[in-house]
Amino acid sequence: MGLLFSFSKKEEVEAGEEFAELVRPEVEEDLDMDLFFTVDSTQLNLPVLQKDYFGFKEAVGYSESRGYYHLVNKFGYMGKYQFGKSALASIGIFDTKDFIHKPELQEEAFYAFTSRNKWLLRKEIAQYSGKVIGGVMVTESGILAAAHLAGPGGIKRFLHSNGSRDVADAFGTQVKQYLKRFEGYDLSEIKADKNAGLKLQRNQKFKQQQV
Q1: What is the Cα–Cα distance from 194 to 197, expressed in whole angstroms?
Q2: Domain boundaries defined on the chain
Q3: 53-104 pLDDT tens trace
Q4: Which CATH architecture has domain 3-210?
Q5: Which of these, 172, 133, 160, 152, lies nearest to 6 by C-alpha position?
Q6: What is the per-residue DSSP string for 102-155?
Q7: Do residues 73 and 82 lie in contact, with contact meaning Cβ atoms separated by under 8 Å?
């Protein structure tokens, strides 16, 4: 059995990754917790959807929160995709109260976060896709789902150690489980983009100016 690392929920931002270029407004500290309960993704049966980006994001959303946009779990992770503050900060979102009340923004954030992770993990995707690591077939979609669970650093540790260093969230869900659960989706719609967060931030400012 591999060594199991436990984190508060997700390790969203790999150590040393900078996002200082993002313009940081005041952080909203107080969350309006419309829903506050725990979803244990190990107990969920994922819906059967097409194996494309839409199916991928809906399956991840269901696994994370059963698709509830207004859910905040006991660790403070929020929304349909259960983002933490550091993950949101990495794509230029700092107002958590605004975020939890905007489903459209949550969808855009998921795309931007996944797009950025696809760029950060481009070498691992090229090197390990199609290989069996730790008894699990590795695919691009599995890697990106695992990065959503444990951060780019978590999935890198798993792959680089040939599966001996696994990572789990506070509910016990492991990288290996996400690799298997979300394998084989066609995510060609997601473009690897280092600056996905900056683009999202500019888009949000443009929308605000139109109001």
Answers
A1: 8
A2: 3-210
A3: 999 999 999 999 999 999 999 999 999 999 999 999 999 999 999 999 999 9
A4: Orthogonal Bundle (1.10)
A5: 172
A6: -HHHHHHHHHHHHHHHHHHTHHHHHHHTT-EETTEE--HHHHHHHHHHHHHHHH
A7: yes
